Amino acid sequence: MLSRADVFDELGIGPVWRLREAPVAQAAAAPVRPRLNWEELADAVAHCTACKLHLTRTQGVLGVGDRNADWLIIGEAPGADEDRLGEPFVGQAGKLLDAMLAAISLQRGDNVYIANLLKSRPPGNRNPEPDEVAACRPYLLAQIELIQPKLILALGRFAAQNLLDTDEAIGRLRGRVHRFQGVPLVVTYHPAYLLRNLADKARAWEDLCLARRTYATLTPDS
Ligand code: URA
After folding, report:
1. Separation of 155 CA from ligand 1 center, angstroms?
2. Which of 23, 130, 186, 187 has the most CB atoms within 10 Å of its CB?
3. What DSSP state is assigned to residue 114?
4. Strands 112-116 and 178-180, how do they pair?
């Protein structure tokens, strides 16, 4: 096991922020050997002070689910419930997410891993700030390295725009298969948004069908 200092160094997280892209960029071509293990990553997130959110969070929320999952679901950031319980998507939005997954015969923890762009809760559920997103990025890259998912489902405008490095509206990002770190990525609405905009549930269902079809082409035996 690496020391915590070595883990932060490996991730490129230090007192002075140094962004270092993970070798996972070549993941589609050749499987990469993860630089860190889950224990090291969890410890680093728990003790991270790379951005100001560590001052107000209760705990870092790494993610939950099957660490060998084909499906990686990426949301925005922990909310109040997630901050308290240490697990992503445990509130009302989480219940809807579970129902969305069930609609395509998936369930939390079984071939599905759920994470957020940010591992710490922004106070008052404000939008994450660019320096916070940048500071947290190595953790998501390390998770992708470890999980090696076949498909990513990005939940909501914030996750989609940040992962795809674009300011295109979510309505234009939906309905296509993108790539993040070489992994096919489908965009859909955030469940918290869908709770307030029931009419868009039909569109979310189309997105889930696209994701399922895409997955089927990647894993013909599934
Ligand atoms: N919203 C998110 O984006 N992530 C969570 O974990 C909970 C709510």
Report:
1. 9
2. 187
3. E
4. unpaired
